[in-house]
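Duplicate of #3305? Posting structure anyway:
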C-alpha cells in the first residue's frame, strides 16, 4: 500500500541538491517520518482522552505540530494549500524555528528514557538537508499520506524502512557499518530463542536490526505477519522493559530510533553514547542482561584511555566489545555475537587471553562460520559466537555455512541458506557441515579456535593472508606499547 509513496519520496530526494547519497536519503526520510508518526500518536491519544472525558496535554506545542505547519487542513479534511508554508518560507521555519524548538526537548525532558528526550536527541543529531523549500513541500505531502494508526500499517512501513536501510548498507562505505543481513540476525535470534520477560541488549546497535528482529520474533514468531495473542501485561513488558541498546554514531542512532518505532516500540530504550567508555568495574547486577545480540564494529581502534576500562588491553574495538558483552551478561544469560574470523586464531597476547576468558567464564556452545560475501562490501570473513555465561566450555559445536553459491549484491544470504544450521544446532547434530571439538583437544597455550572441518579436505593449507596481516598489525602495536613503556622508565 505504501511502497509507491516511498519510491516517490526517493524521487524527490534524488532531485534535491542537498541529498547526495543513500545515507542522506535515509536520514531525511527518518526525521520526516518521525514527526508524522509523532503527530499520529498524539492525535490518537488525544482522541482516546476525549472519549474517556479526560484532558490531554500535547507534547508538541500547536505551532510546531505536523498538522499545523506540514499539513494544515480545511474543514473537509483536504490539504489547505493556501495556508501551507512552501519555498523559502518553509525552509526558514524548519531551520530557524522548528529544529531549535525540537532540539530544546533534551534540556526540558524529565529523563533520558522519555519520548521528550528522544525528540531532543534526534533533532540535535540530524539536520535538514533540503535546499529547496518546494522539494521539501513535495516530500511533506507524500509523507503525510503515510499513516501509523494500526499495527498492520506500522508493520508494512517497518518492512519498507528496512529495505531503505538495506539499500543504504549496500551503497557501501560507512552505510555498510549499520547493516547486518537480516537473515543472519533472524537465525541468531531463533537459536538464542528469547522469551517475554527477558531483557535484551545490543551495545553496538547501529540501525537496531537485532532489537527489531528480536521484537518481531517475540511479537509474531518466525516467518509470520500475524501477531501472537499476548496479555496487556506482556505487551507492556515488550514495549518498555525488554529492548535496550547503545549507539555511538549520530546517523545510525537516529535510524535505529525510527526503526524501533516502526516495529512498534513507541519509546525505544536506545541511548546515544560510546559504550566502551563505560568502566566494567562499576557494573552492578541490575545492569546485566538475559540476552545479548550484537555485531560490534570490526577494524576500529580505541584510544588508551578507553582501553583502561577493560581487563584485557587491546586497541581492537570488536575485542573490547566482546569483553563488554561477557561482563554485561547475567549468570545463565545467552549471547550471539558476530566477530571477525581472525579472532579465532590471532597469536597476539590480547587475542589469546580473550579466547581463554571466553572459554573459562562462558560455555561457548556454537561457532557459526559464515562464508565470504555475507557482509556486502566488508571484505572480511566473520563467525558468530553463541555462548552462555556462568559455566566453562566443555565442547564447541561448529557449523560451516555453505550456501553453494557466491554471495553478493544480486545473491545475498537468505533464510533458506541458514535453515539447516538452525535445525541442526538445536541438537548439536553432526553432518557434513557440522562437528564437535572438545576443549581438552585445544592447544592450552594458544587456545586456537580455528575452523577446521574434519569432513572436508583442506582447500587451502596456507594460512589466510588476512590472519597474517592482522597478526603483524597487532604485534606491531604491542611492540610499540612495550617501547613506550621502556621510554617512560628512562
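Output from current build:
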Amino acid at each position: 500500500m505504501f511502497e509507491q509513496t516511498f519510491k516517490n519520496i526517493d524521487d524527490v530526494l534524488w532531485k534535491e541538491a542537498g541529498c547526495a547519497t543513500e545515507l542522506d536519503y535515509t536520514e531525511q526520510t527518518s526525521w520526516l517520518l518521525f514527526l508524522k508518526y509523532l503527530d499520529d500518536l498524539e492525535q490518537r491519544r488525544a482522541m482516546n482522552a476525549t472519549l474517556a472525558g479526560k484532558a490531554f496535554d500535547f507534547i508538541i506545542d500547536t505551532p510546531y505540530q505536523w498538522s499545523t505547519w506540514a499539513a494544515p487542513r480545511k474543514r473537509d479534511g483536504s490539504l489547505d494549500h493556501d495556508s501551507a508554508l512552501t519555498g523559502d518560507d518553509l525552509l526558514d521555519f524548519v531551520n530557524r524555528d522548528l529544529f531549535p524548538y525540537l532540539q530544546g526537548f533534551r534540556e526540558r525532558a524529565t529523563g533520558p528514557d522519555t519520548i521528550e528526550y528522544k525528540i531532543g536527541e534526534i533533532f540535535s543529531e540530524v539536520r535538514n538537508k533540503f535546499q529547496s523549500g518546494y522539494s521539501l513541500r513535495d516530500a511533506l505531502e507524500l509523507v503525510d499520506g503515510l499513516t501509523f494508526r494500526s499495527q498492520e500499517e506500522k508493520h508494512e512501513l517497518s518492512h519498507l524502512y528496512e529495505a531503505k536501510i538495506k539499500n543504504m548498507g549496500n551503497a557501501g562505505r560507512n552505510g555498510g557499518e549499520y547493516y547486518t543481513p537480516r537473515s543472519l540476525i533472524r537465525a541468531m535470534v531463533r537459536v538464542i530463542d528469547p522469551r517475554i520477560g527477558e531483557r535484551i541488549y545490543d551495545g553496538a546497535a547501529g540501525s537496531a536490526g537485532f532489537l527489531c528482529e528480536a521484537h518481531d520474533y517475540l511479537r509474531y514468531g518466525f516467518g509470520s505477519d500475524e501477531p501472537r495473542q499476548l496479555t496487556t501485561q506482556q505487551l507492556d513488558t515488550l514495549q518498555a522493559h525488554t529492548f535496550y541498546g547503545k549507539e555511538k554514531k549520530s546517523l545510525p542512532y537516529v535510524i535505529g530510533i525510527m526503526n524501533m518505532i516502526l516495529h512498534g516500540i513507541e519509546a525505544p530504550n536506545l541511548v546515544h553514547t560510546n559504550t566502551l567508555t563505560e568502566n566494567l568495574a562499576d557494573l552492578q547486577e541490575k545492569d546485566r542482561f538475559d540476552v545479548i545480540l550484537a555485531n560490534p564494529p570490526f577494524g576500529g581502534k580505541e584510544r588508551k584511555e578507553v582501553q583502561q576500562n577493560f581487563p584485557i588491553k587491546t586497541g581492537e574495538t570488536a575485542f573490547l566489545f566482546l569483553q563488554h558483552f561477557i561482563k554485561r551478561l547475567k549468570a545463565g544469560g545467552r549471547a550471539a555475537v558476530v566477530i571477525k574470523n581472525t579472532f579465532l586464531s590471532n597469536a597476539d597476547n590480547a587475542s589469546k587471553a580473550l579466547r581463554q576468558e571466553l572459554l573459562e567464564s562462558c560455555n561457548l556452545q556454537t561457532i557459526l562460520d559464515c562464508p565470504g560475501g555475507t557482509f556486502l562490501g566488508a571484505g572480511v570473513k566473520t563467525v558468530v559466537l553463541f555462548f552462555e555465561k556462568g559455566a566453562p566450555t566443555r565442547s564447541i559445536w561448529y557449523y560451516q555455512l555453505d550456501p553453494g553459491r557466491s554471495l553478493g549484491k544480486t545473491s545475498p544470504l537468505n533464510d533458506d541458506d541458514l535453515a539447516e544450521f538452525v535445525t541442526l544446532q538445536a541438537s548439536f547434530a553432526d553432518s557434513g557441515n557440522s562437528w564437535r571439538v572438545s576443549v581438552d583437544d585445544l592447544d592450552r597455550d594458544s587456545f586456537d579456535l580455528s575452523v577446521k572441518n574434519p569432513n572436508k579436505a583442506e582447500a587451502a593449507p596456507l594460512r589466510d593472508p588476512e590472519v597474517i596481516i592482522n597478526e603483524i598489525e597487532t604485534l606491531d602495536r604491542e611492540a610499540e606499547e612495550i617501547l613506550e613503556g621502556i621510554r617512560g622508565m628512562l
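Confirmed duplicate; merging threads. The two ends are 72 Å apart (CA to CA). The chain has two domains: 3-149, 173-475.
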